[in-house]
Amino acid sequence: MARPRFSNVFGGGRHDRLEERREDAAFLAAALPHARVLLVAGEQVAVVEGAPPRALHLATSELAALAPGLAAPLESARLWLLGEHEGSVFFGAEAPDAAALAAVAAARGATVAPLKTVAALLPEGEAALLAHLRGLAAWHASSRYCGTCGAPTAATHAGHQRRCTASGCGAVLFPRTDVAVIAIVSRGDRALLVRQPGWRPQHFATIAGFLEPGEGLEGCLAREVREE
Questions:
Q1: pLDDT score at 12
Q2: pTM for the whole thing?
């Protein structure tokens, strides 16, 4: 397998997110039959081995043939527009579970792995598309009910908004954006790095963390360094 890159793999992509097309029903209907589909299942993604490895993406017709149980998202708001990349329109969906994703991957000679494990090995554009999809999937899973009135919400705006279904509420929910800091702490030619027990060998990270309410960037960084 290829060696990891040393770059911002999740933010390095430059796919056109086509935000102006998210409510264009005619465009979405015309694009879907010719689009490529990426799948995630929680943290898991499907990868085709190679140098470099590539994200497994399917034509919509392939998805329905390989896993009939996954065809339902193609006909509902569970299929989300990711944007245009290298001349193709990409949609994404979350598989029902890891076993369903593994079955689709196996049918195409691919394997399943956590996104954080393989992201640095993938082409930047594909890593960014998968990060986009993974973030949407996590947000949809945690936002099924309105935080104002408790009624169910429904996906709109090609998967980038959710709207409360209660007629007296109608609150609109947007994907979370969490403010965080990341920095390298160094002294001379030495740096303080951290790692988790489950990470692959020789995989380290600099110190990072999320801001708490009313906390400044500098205070957040000082707190995170103290915690480590």
A1: 63
A2: 0.83
